[in-house]
Amino acid sequence: MNAPSAPIREAVILAGGQATRLRPYTDTRPKAMVEVADRPIIDYQLEWLAGHGVEHVVVSCGYKAEVLREHLAARTDAPEVTLLVEDEPLGRGGALRYAATGLRDGQAPYFALNGDVLTWFPLDEFTAFHRAKGATASLALAQYQTSWGIVEVDDAGTIGGFTQSPMLPFWINAGVYIFEAAATGLLPVKGDHESTTFPRLAEERRLAGYRIDGFWRGVDTVKDVKEASEQIPGLLAERA
Q: pLDDT-based confidence at 173, cuts 50/70/90?
């Protein structure tokens, strides 16, 4: 049995999507292997997880799996990685359930990440929050930043100014989770957990949301790659 205060030592990463909106980057590689500031996304993720005590990561992939396999096989740094290849597209929820079969301790909680997320926030605080809530699953939440400019206008129609791409008072699924072992069996064999498992857990009051206070960036389009590549060097310099 795992002690309630024990750190989480395993994680899964979903790296199986074709990412058509990231073409031409993904013509020859899966999304997790797209380079941001000259490094594949998955390298940032593995380094972040290892820095918080994660010792073993299961990577679930399908599209261009051979590229990911070759890259991961050449790594010598922690954490240890197990690669599982989907025989057919399972959807994000199905891929999570499939990836969980590669965990070494099927009774322990684990982190889960979407393969297109770049973020740095304290996973120990996320874990403590999850346990304090007694949740079956917890989602990291990122504040929503609109790509549109906001017009400041009063009731009379007079424009007072403009704000470009502000943060809005809404929170979105950041693609980083903590799952208790009990959550794995609630994931669909095939399909999306966001339309099946999460609504059920929310209705049962067993789903918690942790607001990220730190850098988060989803990499879903060519524009995201370019903008993230401009942001990352400065952020890494600040963290050094």
A: very high
Bridge partners for 162 per DSSP:
151
Alpha helix (H) residue ranges in the chain:
41-51, 65-73, 91-100, 123-133, 181-184, 197-203, 222-239
Which residues, 6 or more positions from 166, have their beta carbon under 8 angstroms from its beta carbon?
145, 146, 150
Cβ atoms < 10 Å from Cβ of 138: 25
* β-strands 35-36, 80-85 pairing: unpaired
What is the rounded distance in angstroms from the CA atom of residue 183 to the CA atom of residue 75? Answer: 31
CB 239 within 8 A of CB 233: no
Residue among 87, 31, 96, 33 nearest 60 (CA): 96
User: What's the whole-number mean pLDDT along residues 188-192?
Assistant: 89
Strand partners, 159: 153
CB 167 within 8 A of CB 144: yes
In angstroms, what CA-CA distances link 11 with 64, 90, 106, 165, 203?
Answer: 21, 19, 12, 33, 26
| 3-state DSSP assignment of residue 163 | strand
Query: Rounded mean pLDDT of the chain?
Result: 89
The tokens for 47 are: 């380094």
Single-letter code of the amino acid located at 145: Q
